[in-house]
Structure formats: C-alpha cells, structure tokens
Amino acid sequence: MTTHRIDVRLPGREYPVLIGHGVVKDITQFLPKSARKAVIITQSGIPANLALPIESKTVIIGQGELTKSLATIESLSQEFADMGITRNDVIIGVGGGMVTDIAGFAASTWHRGTPVVHVATSLLAMVDAAIGGKTGVNLPQGKNLVGAFWQPSAVFCDLDSLATLPERELRCGLGEVAKYHFLTGDDLLAMSLDERVARCVGIKGSFVEQDERESGKRAFLNYGHTLAHALETVGNHQLAHGEAVAIGLIFAARLARALGRIDDARVDYHELVVGQTYSLQTRMPAGLDIDALLAAMARDKKALNGLTFILDSPQGLEIVAGISAEVVRSELVSFSQA
Q1: Looking at the chain, which terminus has fewer C-beta neighbours within 10 angstroms, N or C?
Q2: Tally of domains in the chain
Q3: Is 4 part of the annotated catalytic residue set?
Q4: Within the chain, which residues score under 50 in pLDDT?
Q5: Residues 203, 254 share a domain
Q6: What pLDDT sits at residue 327?
Q7: Do 251 and 195 lie in a common domain?
Q8: Do both 197 and 227 map to the same domain?
C-alpha cells in the first residue's frame, strides 16, 4: 500500500507526516534518539497498543470538551513527574484533535519543552489538529484561549483507524476538509481518500512553513472558525468542532456577501461544497443567544480591532478587521432564520 510522506520544514528543523494504512508500525524509527521513557496520552476506546522499545506508561484522559482544561494539564504533569519524564524523553498523543491539542500543550510546558509525537486517529486530527504545532486548552470564556506553539517530532496518520471511526467523528473531519476547498483550487473530490488526506496535510504544511506562529497567512486555516468557536462555546459544545466549522463556513460566505465582497454564486458554491458534497449541517441551531455569540467572537484570538473575520473575495481569502458589530448581528439574525 502507498505511504505518503510530507515533511514540514521550518527554520532549523523539520518533521515528517506519514499518511497511509498501517504507518504507525514504524513509530520507533521516528522517536527522539535521546528518549528512554514515554508517556502515551489517549482516551478510552482508542487502540493505543504501540510497540515501543522504551519504558512507557499509558494515561487515559476523559471525553468531551470539559476535559480540555488546565486541570487536565496539571494531572498529566503529575503523571510525568511520577514517571520521571525528562526533556530528553517523549510524550505521545494517540487520538483525535482533542488528544493532540492536550498532549502537545502538556509537552510544551513540561520542563519548558519535551518532544511530542502525534498518532492521529480521527480525520479531523489527520488533516488539521495534529499538524502545525498549535496546542491549547479551553476556558469557560472560550476555546483554546490558553496554549502554545509546540511542533511535534513526527505525525502518523494511520488510515486504518478511520474504518472504525464513528459517523459523527467522520463529519467533524469533513468540516475541516471542506475548508480546504476554499484555500486552493485543487479538485479534492477527484482524489482517493489517502490522496485527499495527503493533499490536505500538504496544504496545511505549506501554510505552517510560511507562517509558523499565525502572524499572517496561517490564520487563513481558521476560515469559518470565528463563528464556529463561538457556536461551540455558547452552545456548551453540543456541536462538535467540525460541525461548527461547516456552519461557520456558510456564515463567513454570507457575511462576505453582505459586505459586498462576493456574489450569490460564490455563496452557492459554499453551500454546494459544505451541504451537498459533504452532507454537513449548514445552519445554526435554533435558540442561541445572538449577543452571547457576538461576545464570544469578540474574544477570538484573531480579533485585532473590533470583530475580525477571515472572508472570501475574488482575490482569495483575506483577514478583515474592524467589522461593525451591527453588521455581524444583522447577518446572524438573518442566518438564524434561514
């Protein structure tokens, strides 16, 4: 079977992302040579039986967004201390985007930086969360507000794990895959699954290489995420991340149209990709507090001057700051009634 390898190259360092069936069997080759111990962070129900040549311990963290917290980081740090993990050892995250976010952040803070390797077991983690070094946990006020940039030593996207992925988890990944349609002109639908995952990884890797710490173009990878994160926070995480991103993509297109940036045809294309191609929800859940959504969006990490969105245009995506809250409110009201 074909294995795709994409190297993410950053100043002074690089790391491989391996995509294919059974690729995790090669994990030993990519562990830091200095590592003598490993802590494997995962969740119940995820196979995490890695054949490691070094002493290891598996720590199970909870399910759900409430687990993505500073309390979990403290608990993991105590596990690292009990095992005597040093900065020469390795943390391994095995799971979806939540696991890789938590494992990466815990590794970034332990001894001010310990190597981390990600084994992505969900489509969302494969095409997005496990790659690029963005780590973080939530606060009650919003998603991923506490975090760090900490690049992995290697990432494994083992496609065998997708065979048992629950349907909702698959939809989460498809929400992020849909996003990539608006970042390039590639015909992702003409590709096989492994080719499509590899292309998404390649697109994300290229943005990370250009802008590791999200000071410019890397922010485009958050297309659709401004409303998405607000929907997750205000809705108490009843929507999964990819489901919220799908809705956020449609709202971003409608807002761009309201601002005269794109026309009806471009909005229809968003509907085609998100709703018809990937069969994802394209409208907000009923009953959400519009003022609460606005407040959550104002706390978004991209917010520089007023409300900030990534919006489409004939020239491609752009970061647009200083958008009037009343314009956004009006479009939210219209969107909620659509």
Answers
A1: N
A2: 2
A3: no
A4: none
A5: no
A6: 95
A7: no
A8: no
